[in-house]
Amino acid sequence: MKLRYTADINSYKRMTNAELKEAFVVDDLFTPGETVLTYTDVDRAIVGSIVPQQKPLELPQSKELGSDYFCERREIGVINIGGDGVIEVDGERFAMTYKDSLYIARESRDIQFTSNDPKQPAQYYLVSYPAHRTTKTTHVSKPNAKHIELGSAVESNERTINQSIRPGIVDSCQLVMGFTELEEGSVWNTKPPHTHRRRSEIYMYFEYNDDNRVFHFMGEPSETRSLVLAAGTAVISPAWSIHSGAGTSNYTFIWAMGGENQTFDDMDHIPISEIS
Ligand SMILES: O=C[C@H](O)[C@@H](O)CC(=O)C(=O)O
Ligand SMILES: [Zn+2]
Question: In which residues is Zn(2+) bound (predicted)?
């Protein structure tokens, strides 16, 4: 497992693009046939991907966790953005089709990730946080998520927030997770931007081709910096940072939060006129 130390609220202001990327961007995801994980210093989040081909893949037991198995004291949210597959958790099988979510509860021991067709492998994206209690592993298909439509074509931000792992749907500890899909012609997410001092957040952008990029804005509202991201790239937002982007086309992104509370609406909106 890779370790990632991000940068603090002062030092990010003096960083080059390459340094900002090294601190906040995770761009080694979705390697075929591998489990790829990065352990961050932001709320001890782990972000990664699992792309099984012929053989099933598992989560490693690792020194970073200081536990006998991955979920001994952790919860995981998984969303499949590839072909169909199955995740087996302690003998229970969960079919994972496109954009299905699986919440894997603390103390789940034997977790196997498989693809139905190695030529069109499942692409499991995951985010994990420390968990203080043991709840229930829960599958949430896209139709069973909570859908929130917002924005408008006029403001280029017409989008649907799909909340799959959230209170009322899944009994999780810290994790709140889902994905936001932008309509054709809309390019702005999280407009107006916000911070939530009580939670950090990780975005992973996908569903656009390599001729396009998302320009992701981070930092304090008065000192934003941008990161130019290809599809399949994740970006870590400490609690002090805005996290909002504009694409050169429409796109989808998975967001995942952890921290002090699970109140999605506990955010401080920043008017665009106050961003610089
Ligand atoms: O704290 C919430 C997260 O930043 C996202 O859910 C926001 C988002 O998907 C959007 O407005 O486009
Ligand atoms: Zn947010």
Answer: 194, 196, 201, 243
Give the C-alpha separation, 35 to 267, whole Å: 33
Cα 239 from Cα 266, distance rounded (Å) = 12
Which token pair is 66?
A: 């200081």
Is the C-beta atom of 255 inside 6 A of ligand 1?
yes
User: Which atom of ligand 1 is nearest to 190's Cα?
Assistant: 11
pLDDT at 61: 86
129-166 residue pLDDT tens: 999 999 999 999 999 999 999 999 999 999 999 999 99
| Residue range 201-226, pLDDT digits in tens | 999 999 999 999 999 999 999 999 99
Domains, the chain, in order of start with CATH, read 2-274 (2.60.120.10)
Nearest to 111 by CA among 60, 67, 164, 47: 60
| 137 within ligand 1 shell (Cβ under 6 A) | no
Which helix H or strand E contains 241, and what residues bound it? none
Tokens standing for residue 83: 């072909």
Atom of ligand 1 at shortest range from CA of 159: 12
The predicted-structure confidence for 42-72, as pLDDT tens digits, reads as follows: 999 999 999 999 999 999 988 999 999 999 9
